[in-house]
Amino acid sequence: MRTDIQTSTHNGLGSLVLDRPQALNSLSLDMIRTLAQSLHAWQKDQRVRAVVISSTLPKAFCAGGDIHFFHEVAVGGLTGGSALLEDFFTEEYALNYLIHHYPKPYIALLDGIVMGGGMGISQSSAAQSIRVVTERTRMAMPEVNIGLFPDVGGGYFLSRLPGELGTYLGLTGEIIGADDALYANLADVFVPRAELPALMNLIESVDDHQYRQATEAFAAPFAAQINPANSMLAKQRPLIDRHFSHDSVAAITASLAKDDTPFSQKTLNTIRKRSPLMVCVSLEQIRRSAHMELADCLRLERTMVRRCFEHGETVEGIRALVIDKDNAPQWNPASLQDVTPEMIAPFFTSAWPDYAHPLRELA
């Protein structure tokens, strides 16, 4: 029987290998459960000293959540789908929390596409954890493209990036490469893809728990192949910090509109193509999350994602981008100037009392 995640233990390592090629490793509920089950078991297993997560695919680590599943559920094409959708986000966000606070080193080999849900299973602050990017890395939090918001803890980690880089990435959904990921503190080291097998051999030989130090030493000779200080984000940082420091989307777009530089005009046009409502909701989320712990951010996002499906914006975004592929979403409302505070507020009003929240047990 085929499984979309290969799990194994060897030489003190727990190995998680994403293997769903037909969907670029987009996460299904079964995959989320397999990841969670393995990680829960290994955190108590003294034979497992560290965890490595990687992919079998040459062009993708993980493209995000299974948005075809989201759409099928939302339009009523799956028996019991509503409950499964609720389970998906509850269990995915609980998994994100587990990974972020994992008690053992968590090593993510981010080769290829790393977007949305793929970011959620790779951003860990556990001791000795490390995020490795390659020349093929393409990273993004692109949720506003489909009428969603940067979830899987996105409010937490985007709001903590240098300056306004997280605001820019969350509101535009732009794709960045390895140099930008390193500059923005969304990755730790660069290793050429061809060297990943050698890196894995090294990691398997570590016997003193110094996985981060060993990986950094391995990556050091390749540092000259990449220049984060000369990345797109580095070059445009002054403009990003200036325009995205405002606390309303109207002020951000007005600031961009007054700047005739190619970057600012391109960015303005990008924002205008996204869901007006969800761009505004995402900005509010990022600003609030800057002052919240991860557990509270995930609880907030759990309410927000339910509101997205209640509103219908996410369903329309997926239809236009992925199902019908007409790239002509009928956003509601259709323009930024039509978004009111009354439209934004429900996304931040909890769908449950505290005692009944599905993520109430997160510390």
UniProtKB/TrEMBL annotation:
Domain Enoyl-CoA hydratase/isomerase: 14-348
Keyword Hydrolase: yes
Keywords, sorted A to Z: Hydrolase
Protein's UniProt keywords contain Hydrolase: yes
Transmembrane segments: none
SUPFAM superfamilies reported for this sequence: ClpP/crotonase
InterPro entries, sorted: ClpP/crotonase-like_dom_sf, ECH_dom, HIBYL-CoA-H
Listed name of the protein: Enoyl-CoA hydratase/isomerase family protein
Natural source organism: Herminiimonas aquatilis
